[in-house]
Amino acid sequence: MNKKLIKQNYYEAVNEEWLKNAVIPGDRPAISSFLDLHLDIEKKLLELAANWLEDHSDLNENLQKFIKLYLMTKDFSKRQELGTKPIQAVLEKISRLENLKDLQKEYKDFVYNSIDTPFYFSVMQDFMNSDNQVLYFGASSLILPDTSYYKDEATKERMLSLFTATTTQLLGLYGYEADEINQLIQDAIAFDALLVPVTKSSVEKADYVKMYNPYLKEDILNLTQHYNLIQSAEELVDQNVDQLIITNPDFINAFNDIITDENFKIMKSWMIVNNLISFSSHLTDEIRIAGGAFTRALSGVREPQSQDKFAFYQAYNPFSQVVGLYYGETLFGPVARENVKTMVHEMMGVYQERIHNNTWLQEETKERAIKKVAALTVHVGYPDELPPYYDQFEISSYEKGSDLIQEKMKRDRLMAAYTYSKYNQKPNKNIWGMPASMVNAYYSPTNNQIVFPAAILQRPFYSLDQTSSENYGGIGAVMAHEISHAFDNNGAKFDETGSLNNWWTEEDLAAFDNKAKEMIALFDGVETGFGPCNGTLTVSENIADSGGLRCALEASKKSDLHDDEEFFMNWTRVWRIKASEEYSKLLLTIDVHGPSILRANMQLMNLPEFQALYQLTEEDPMFLAADKMVSIW
Ligand SMILES: [Zn+2]
């Protein structure tokens, strides 16, 4: 550690060497602790997959399917030979559409085959009753990553020109003539412009509860006279539908004006352009590289993935939970799984104790909060069950006349059938939302559940070679961060069963809302080197970080081996990142997580123990006045 920097910038003091030496891989927008681990796992999985290509006779059936698909994705000479032929079926389906009536007829077929349309239905748990699943309805994504990109005329122009340039090149490779290309892109941008004013910004999307707007069938039928949304919904789920949860009322209110036969031409161009982009990764090497150009430019990624890596991920992504389960079972194992479970339960105990000793809540609210922690279900390492569609997947081969788009559609049909069969059914809470091989963790407010995939349970987060204080500052703080999500500004609105239900006394809720506002103010406008932090966008994650850090510190202090500095240093190592300028700015606009440098520095400045250890005073940049400190959990 560079001791001279401690009082100036703790993040740099701890990470100076790493920041100096870290190199952003050419095909990535950043390098960080998370990505270091990810790259390590990637290397292991690539080696495993290479061995399996040689001999996969001992593998379970689903892993064998993964290998069969991998054989197809890595055969770039066959992909080249097929050219754009595989996408013709998709284009024919779209070009046959002449009006909304045609789209209405084909809608289910499009959804089941993952052909992009301007709106979507998804099945998720009912916020009001987490034991049931209902249909949510919303508009598809915009061309640019966030509505804020459209607000400033210069930014909008620059970004849409970039989109036009990259897409022109891509459509050229598909064989379109220059006039056609111009027209298609111009139309697509014109249709996108209709969606912009009725799309929520990332800041608005960060407020979960506002996504939940139940509309009855009659109201929807009144609002959507040119297209029968209820009919499409009923075809998808093959049942009667009497209400939809509208994620953005602005969109449904404007539906009648946007989804019309007059706009059909530009909407169809939008569909053609979107689908040419989204299916591009399944075609030749040249097309998949051109298809990713815009996304790479948005994040400042210098070069596309190599063929080898790309082919691996293209087979891995649809089988990620299958490969992840293998990774978790063989490289993590049941013993580590039990150890980590014990750690999580220890952290839950400390959390309950902290709520018990809390000074700003009334007894009634405390009791409910403690009950919510007690009811948390914890999943560690790898899941007990996988989604059922993997068993139904069947992978064919080029020899049998198949190609990557046919394969994708076959899988997507099974996945869609699974998704829509969940409508009106009790959820299966054993199914995870991420593979065991992913370096991440999550809290589900509707399941009141935390999930820690095996991949995150490594250095610097967790290692038997680290001191216990280091482990508490790493994985301990991550665990308590996830528990804290049960009590962030979104999670706090759900009860211990995962339903939206106000369990707070009126005064306590008002006090909590005030504290959340203080947290917004603490981060809002703070400079990061790439622009200011948005306090409102990041409030839920900042509350979770703050609660997690305080709880983990308390847990660590219970050990005779506790050392403040080891704890703070490892917390700071976890958040190190080096990123391209474009990516850093993109994250400031769309990411609900605070910028990493503030997750390290600001969260530590907000701790009295940190201030005391380094005897910080008003003159020090790492000093925060006591009346500015925000303590929630
Ligand atoms: Zn979080």
Supply database-style keywords.
633 residues; alpha/beta; Collagenase (Catalytic Domain); Neutral endopeptidase, domain 2; 2 domains; four-stranded mixed beta sheet
Provide an overview of this structure.
By secondary structure, the protein is an alpha/beta fold. It has two domains: 280 residues, Collagenase (Catalytic Domain); 223 residues, Neutral endopeptidase, domain 2 (Orthogonal Bundle). The protein contains 28 helices and nine strands. The chain has a four-stranded mixed sheet. Strand 2 and strand 3 form a beta hairpin. It is globular and about 70 Å long. The model has no long low-confidence stretch (mean pLDDT 96). The site of zinc ion has 4 residues, from helix 24.
How far do the termini sit from each other?
30 Å
Number of separate domains:
2
The coarse silhouette is globular
Q: Give the total of beta strands.
A: 9
Q: Biggest β-sheet: count, sense, barrel?
A: 4 strands, mixed
